[in-house]
Amino acid sequence: MSGLDEERLARAYLLRVAEPPAPALHAFVADQGPLAAAKAVRADDCPPRVRDETAARRDVERAEDDLAVADRLGARLVIPEDDEWPAWPLLCLDQAGRRGVQGMAQPLALWVRGDARLDTVTEAAIAVVGSRAATGYGEHVGGELAYGLAGHEISVFSGAAYGIDGAAHRGALAGSGVTVALLGCGVDAGYPAGHVALLNKIAERGGLVVSEYPPGTSPARHRFLVRNRLIAALSQGTVVVEAGRRSGARNTATTAGVLGKVVMAVPGPVTSAMSIGCHELIQESGATLVTSIDDVIAQAGKLGALPGERASARRPTDRLGPDALRVHEALDRGQGKSAEEIAAESGVPLVRVRALLSALEIDEFAQRCDNGWKRSAARRGRR
Amino acid sequence: MSGLDEERLARAYLLRVAEPPAPALHAFVADQGPLAAAKAVRADDCPPRVRDETAARRDVERAEDDLAVADRLGARLVIPEDDEWPAWPLLCLDQAGRRGVQGMAQPLALWVRGDARLDTVTEAAIAVVGSRAATGYGEHVGGELAYGLAGHEISVFSGAAYGIDGAAHRGALAGSGVTVALLGCGVDAGYPAGHVALLNKIAERGGLVVSEYPPGTSPARHRFLVRNRLIAALSQGTVVVEAGRRSGARNTATTAGVLGKVVMAVPGPVTSAMSIGCHELIQESGATLVTSIDDVIAQAGKLGALPGERASARRPTDRLGPDALRVHEALDRGQGKSAEEIAAESGVPLVRVRALLSALEIDEFAQRCDNGWKRSAARRGRR
């Protein structure tokens, strides 16, 4: 862990005191910065909605312990102030939140096990998800798809459950690919017990084990659902391999759709209860039927989300910090806006907006126009 | 066989001399009537395109023999002049032909085995088709769907091949339903050999065995493709249960789509070569994924094509002969047309158009307006 120690301690504290997703706290931190926000929460001197999210645990002072425990596990806390923070993929959560979708707040920070950079693994990433009670067919197909993604240097994102999640990680590992497990519990929870060795292998072989829950947090059903938004947000598309009529994998797929990601489903025998959810996603939710790795890549490629384009497009945007991204988000392509308007819309202080606009202009993300600022035409191809 | 003996003989002759589909001959017969058309073909006194279609066999005088053979088989020749001619369902072939789709001519008549009325069995009908080389899964699902259709008093239409076709007929028979086999050979060809008993059972148990090919015609690949348009036209929707990458069932589905019918496909394991065609139909051709009889009925019901509506809508239109249908087809809902314009568009002689328009007015199919005639608003709900 290097630098930004105060911010990291502040965010470790905030992650401990608020149960994700904590949209009011996230907005408060974005507005005040983590240090001032943590101070205000500790002092119980914060807006009512932030107070609601933090009141129950604001006295829990475990940040240093959590960081120490994580360190012993070979884990770290990645914060938005870090270079490796996956700012672009997570922006879609803000956008959905602004559209009024509940529960879409960005994480305040992420606990991460494994050596890979968190931003790098999200560059080209597909979520492969499905039922715990998978059939042999589903495990075979999930494993094959993940193996194929590995061969195309696309990261596999999934949960850590038995069934499809495990098959996906094993398939990616068999293909020497990068695979990322998002947990609904602490990275040290050892859950599910039968996957402890698999999770260790993921972290050791170039993948990541990721959670927004502090070390020691136990698994819970609502946490898996909250976690699903991160699987959907951090990947460019989600493939549901098998899902029963009620299935957490369908929740991930629905969230991916809300976030504007590609949603895909693998068909199966109509006689199999484990394919009902996939068929319903195709029939009712507009998921695209995919039968092979080629289908998955073709679909994800339609959004311009996979390698090639990203490889060349990545460098410039990676230099932008979270405030710059928010300012950029507030810019239109057509009409210009004043710095004041941009400050109001992005929530970034006006003085900082002015500085960032100049920086964005140099990097060709923004350009001046008659009535203010707009997005640069040079970057029209970016999402 | 009762009445219309001359027309029946003429059409039996014409079916013998032209290989279906024979669009020029069909148009010629529609224009001249079967007696004059047969006379002109025999005399080699017909338009060049009709001559092209009939030159090779115009000397084959087998009409009386064909009718006698059919009679011995318990078969009959149903002609457009008969009450039981399924004029409405077949109209879509004319419409497609006018849009320039090749090979969509109506049949000149149909050889039919079985006691059911041909028009009645098409009132509520779904085609269930698929590969000869079906898997156990496909045969199970095809049989179950047909059984379910039987339970809803919906006729099953299919070919007579091994695999899905046979499973569909057996399923419908098991459900005591009406099932109709469309052949690509004569109704007496005994093809495929292993399905002779099945075809007999279909004809004996309230279903029909149907072909536009005269008795004795041998099966041929191109005839199965030509036959497919009748399966598609005579049903309100087509379900493909299993289909390989190249499959005649896909041809039927594509034709059904061209004819404006509901196209459905059953998914299966992505590891099964016999489901590739179904998945591609869903991915590339807009076929609707269906997993159950409920799905099939819901889909077909969307076009208002199945019972209920049809039951009440049927009576009036069944009284219309082919000329009246063509005149009705030529009418618009919005703008009026003169009788001359309608004659030109329908190809029905002006004097007959005038008489038919009055008849159509009485039946509320047509109404007078400022500048001539248009379709009656009272029947707006009809297709």
From TrEMBL, chains A, B:
Pfam family, one: DNA_processg_A
GO biological process, one term: DNA-mediated transformation
SUPFAM superfamilies, sorted: MCP/YpsA-like (SSF102405)
Every Smf/DprA SLOG domain range: 78-299
Gene3D superfamilies: 3.40.50.450
Family membership noted in the UniProt record: Belongs to the DprA/Smf family.
UniProt name for this protein: DNA processing protein DprA
Organism annotation: Amycolatopsis taiwanensis
Originating gene: smf
